[in-house]
Amino acid sequence: MKSFIKKIRLYGRLISALNGFLYDFYRFYLFSAWRSDMKDAEQRNYNAVKIYHTLEKSMSLKNRRLGAGQSSAYILLDVLKYAKKSNNIGFHDKAALSTLSRFVELDGINKVEWVEQIRKELLAFDFFSDEVHGSQIYRLEDFRKGMLENPEKFFFSRHSLREFKNEIVPEHVVKRAVSLALKTPSVCNRQAWHVYHTSDSDIKYLALKYQEGNRGFGDRVPNLMIITTDLKAFVSGYERYQHWIDGGLFAMSIIYALHSLGVASCCLNWSQTPAKDKMLRSLVDIRPNHTVVMMLAIGWPDENNNICVSARRPLDEVYSSLNARRKL
To answer: Could you tell me the pTM of the whole model?
Structure first.
């Protein structure tokens, strides 16, 4: 009998996983950009950055092939035409126009026929970005300015805290950390992240109600962040996991950005059932196209803090030289 119950529990894990996969597929069907609807401003902007980033990459190469980027330039021009018709110009619409304008002014392609055609069509647009787009010189001395004098000291001094000083972290500090984290790399530079933040006790209670890792300290968390990614940024079926990957990278950047500002944090997992994900959304206002990646409890550390002694695996267990399976 015990053996039978054990098997049921084991296969129950697979059934639970299947339920989760189907829920994720359904949300991908509902909210991702697989339809490529350019009338949807958000989908169009994510599509625009995906395309203009290919031009940025082309411009950043020292030895460019003449004619490189032609197809992307025409596709981006079509996206810009949709933007102009919409009368709803977004950040990436402006950046796309600025990038394409810089692209057609590159040395060596000025007299190419297709470039002249695009340049003439660009005269019809007037929503340029005030920021620098395309490419720029990045010197070794610029790179070295960002190097930490003692990276081990910075990374090894960060610990998860579950008890904090009884003091709210000001919103301007939270926003500064998020601004720092915006330098996180993402697929095609789409930056599909969104952060929900609160220090309101009632809202924190509702948000943490179905998060099972905050027992014993959740009621004393000063600030709470919910880190999400926007499914509208993802088009292809092979990008089905990309929102989790990009969201995880962004979350880690926020954690270290907070650490650099003296703010402690504790990661709160949101690997939950479809039912609990729906319950969370019924309690707090999270947009339906935003996938919850994780929650983050944050606060100022006390003068003295108790932390878990969380041992790290030996380096040789997580690092290997990559070898080919067969000779070329």
So the answer is: 0.91
